[in-house]
Amino acid sequence: MLAPRSLIQEISRQIRAHFRSLVAFHLFFTLLATAIWVPLSAGTLAGLIRRIGRPVLSNGQILDVAFSAWGLLWLLVAIGLSFLVIFLQQAGMMLVVSSPAGNRYRIAINALWHLARRFVSLATLTFLQVGAHLLLIAPFAVGLAHLYDAMLGDTEPYILLRLMPPELWEYLAIAVPVLAVLVALSAALYFRWFLALPGVVLDGLSPLAALRQSRRLTHGQRLRMAALVLGTALLVTAIPVGFTLAFNTLGGPLLGHLPERNSVLIPAMLAYLAIYIVATIALTFLGISANSLMVTSLYHRATGRAPSFQPPAAPHRSGVIAWGAEIVVLVFALGQAGWILHGFEINDQVSITAHRGSSHKAPENTLASMNQAIADGADYLELDVRLTGDGQVVVSHDNNLRRLTGVDSRIDRMTLAEVEQVDVGSYFGDAFVGERIPTLRQVLDNARGKIDLYVELKPEPGDAQTLARKVIALIKARQMDDHAVIASLSPPVIDDVKAIDEVIPATLFVQFVLPGALRTTPADIIGLRHTQATPGLLRAIHRSGRRVAVWTVNNTGDMSRYIDMGVDNIITDRPDALAEIIAERREMSDGELLLVKLRNWLRS
Description:
Blueprint (H helix, E strand, L loop, with lengths): L3 H14 L1 H34 L6 H8 L2 H29 L6 H14 L1 H34 L4 H7 L2 H27 L3 H8 L3 H12 L3 H35 L5 H42 L14 H25 L8 E5 L11 H9 L4 E8 L5 E3 L6 H4 L10 H4 L20 H8 L4 E6 L6 H14 L6 E5 L2 H10 L5 E5 L14 E5 L5 H9 L3 E5 L4 H10 L3 E4 L2 H13 L2 H14 L1
Parallel strand pairs: 1-2, 1-9, 2-4, 4-5, 5-6, 6-7, 7-8, 8-9
Antiparallel strand pairs: 2-3
Helix pairs in contact: 1-12, 2-4, 2-5, 2-13, 4-5, 4-6, 4-9, 4-12, 5-13, 6-8, 9-10, 11-12, 11-23, 12-13, 18-19, 21-23
């Protein structure tokens, strides 16, 4: 049943024999799913946010919504519908390869027609399988979340990832074995019901009967089946990765040898992008079809027969519809390529913000790192401010000094005089021994006329309004209100800032932006964790009239990519590296810059 070589040969023969029918079905289904599922999910999520009626931007707010009754309902339905789309596509391909020979377009239309007739059974099977997995995962997720809160809840994720403290390793020592048990149980459940879908689709079984049959057919074969499926998944994943690398490696130099005339270069890049998009669609199709055909072949072998599906009559003119779908795909690829090229702006405008100063060269949030940022060509200096026990505004990311000094002391319980005695430079090297925690007043005096400021508020519970009021007063007293941005990770803090002063620009740092959530904040700028930035999200934020900053970008390739994505500000620990990239790009010809932008788009 599970001889890998013969199975792969059988899958290859099926793809060759039914290639056009599979392609036609894939195109039809993708167009239908995209037209229905994407607007439905975005629209219902936006409706959920409106119904809840409160801001949903910070991590805490998103979690509050996710664990509310409506949020859990939407999340469960969204997960179920996402898997339903996958099940329907796999089921349709199973129908195609199990159909007798005939007109390839009619076979594809017949498959869609039969999916519609069996929709209730397929949806029931999907929700049974997905629901069982969610019930299995739930206690593990809740337990690990409570464990994280107990062991690491007081430590910021940034500190955990950067310093890897002992507490993190202790948590992982417990969490990793627990996750391994969860993965093993989930895999056992998955392969227990691995052959249920073809039972519903090809033999017309009820969902419960199909699950029982799958349990019987896979008994004693699940480990070998898991190894086979995992190997196939790795192979299917490696093909598009290898294609992208080869396409990028070979295509870039070829385009680079073209004459730098827009009449030649732009059509060549248009064709290059169109071919890439079509090839990506084709590779996606091969991956999906290979998985579907593997399940079908295993089912045929397990049952000892190869059922021939006899569908009811399909609507007429299926061939016309199929050709129309293929033309739509080609037009889509050319349109996408043209849209991508149109978005390649030749003149790049991006500001450089030094994250806690040039913190790769000097200790963070000190005058030394700030002066280094000025020397490195930064446009903005990002710094964190908080209140001492006697109400003075000082510059420090952490409230507890243990990370930088090894001393377990809290700034909000110390006087300014005590804070000023703390050495926060020794950890960085002998050259910075004696470097102190500066006050915001000192930073403002040092920065005026040299660099603009990005002031992130770090309040403790209960002092947010006091901190915001004092920071704004200091900025105005030093006449820096036209050269400063106030930032926070907390939407309520941004609300406080805007209530105190509507003119000073405010940045809200967020991890995610849900549809419709931007209406709930008065922030002028949205700061995104750089791993969450996408071209579509940037366009949505810009359409709302806001600018976009990304944090914290230290890889030079990523810096170039985010410039081409259209961000307005890049926050980095390495402002000198970003300044060098911007200077190099200004020296490039239009043709060279277009090629750089193309390479960055491929990496995106």
